[in-house]
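As a warm-up, study this chain.
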Amino acid sequence: MNVKRTVTFALVSGALAAWFAGAMTPGIPPLASPPIRTSPVDVTGAELSQEINRLHERLRPDATPQAAVRNPFAFRSAAHARAATKISAEPVAVDRLPVPAADSIPITFSGLAEDAGPDGLVRTAIVVANGQLLFVKERDVVDLGRATYTVTSISSTALDLTNMADGSVRHLTLK
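Now compare it with the structure written out below.
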């Protein structure tokens, strides 16, 4: 019984091997592709592209363009501010540096948003200061570096900011 089982196993294995070998070999030889002939249109197109490349080389500027100095995505360019300042060789004492007045900081009241809240109407002012867009509500503290303000009141057309250092009030109207 052992010999019969071994012969059956050998025959089945041989049949499977022949079947897999037949599946792996291609039955049809690959076709040879016909030679490619260039048409007159292709020759004309190649001449035209050579002429375009020659004209591009001829019209190429000798001077390199300057770097872009304007960023349309920024309110204020820091490069212009740095380029305009003059650097002196002598050291300057810290106590002699001029301190700009708080009123010289450009602040613009640009817009207003109103939402219904549990206590009534809640207003949010849209303010542009130092190149930043700020959304402030009443009693918010706005730190602009040189001065710190508290939002005192927001009406439909005006905004009042109180300077925390000296108590002065800046009244801004909606533009």
